[in-house]
Specification:
The protein has 253 residues and is of the alpha+beta class. The protein is built from ten helices and eight strands.
């Protein structure tokens, strides 16, 4: 839940692309609560945020007498730990695919599954069951993971120039199911356009919580590829703008 609220703060401040180095604007406490799942009590929410303040993930500030929160440097670092690809998201693609091929026996299934989870966390996509690719450089964290798990003899790391793997946009769309992710963002937009007029307070809050959850789920699986590999109409930013325009993630300076 802590990480969910950190994502909410990041999105509310529109700093996804600059999350590793950028600043964060203050975010209304009541708006931040909407990032919790339906049924999550406000008492638990207040206790969690108070703990996050004590631990240094967020800073509490007053804006026109109202309680607001903003991400700290520690909070931004935690988000990058959860999604390391954010450290490289502003970089242009150099035209090389980073390829990981592994051969881990069935008797070491847990280790193999752990490797796959690590690859997905680092933004890799599955080309085949035991072959994953990424557009970003192998991170120091991944190399340390390979070493610490004794996988050096079981994992092959390669780099290949784009021309050997076909049309890059076509390959990216297949490997990361970009259409499926795009549809998730578009559903958020469509729901906001068609149903945001709900006036009853309780129903409206639950509706907004559902919208937040849907957007967050799309953001989590979004591989954050360079713009050159994304469809021209990639809707991540549009969905965020609709949330802002609707007042769902209204921010304060």
């Amino acid at each position: 839940m802590r990480d969910r609220l950190l994502w909410g703060l990041a999105i509310g401040g529109e700093i996804v692309e600059q999350i590793d180095t950028g600043g964060s604007r203050a975010y209304d406490s009541n708006k931040l609560y909407l990032w919790t799942p339906p049924g999550y009590s406000k008492k638990k929410y207040r206790q969690l945020v108070a703990r996050m303040v004590r631990e240094g993930y967020v800073q509490q500030v007053l804006v026109e007498g109202r309680t607001h929160f903003r991400l700290t440097g520690v909070g931004r670092k935690q988000i990058v730990i959860n999604k390391p690809v954010l450290k490289q998201i502003s970089q242009e693609w150099d035209g090389f695919w980073r390829i990981v091929i592994f051969d881990v026996a069935e008797s070491q299934r847990k280790l193999r599954d752990n490797l796959r989870r690590q690859l997905v966390k680092l933004g890799f996509g599955a080309l085949q069951n035991s072959t994953y690719i990424s557009v970003y450089e192998y991170s120091k964290e991944f190399l340390e993971f390979i070493d610490s798990k004794g996988l050096k003899t079981k994992v092959l790391l390669l780099e290949s120039k784009q021309k050997f793997l076909g049309d890059p946009k076509v390959l990216a769309a297949k490997v990361w199911d970009l259409k499926g992710i795009s549809d998730q963002y578009q559903q958020v937009i469509d729901k906001l356009v068609s149903r945001f007029g709900i006036k009853e307070a309780g129903k409206r809050e639950e509706f907004l919580k559902k919208i937040y959850r849907d957007y967050l789920e799309a953001l989590i699986v979004d591989p954050m590829l360079p713009k050159g590999l994304l469809p021209e109409s990639w809707p991540r930013h549009k969905a965020a703008q609709y949330l802002l325009r609707a007042g769902v993630v209204k921010e304060s300076g």
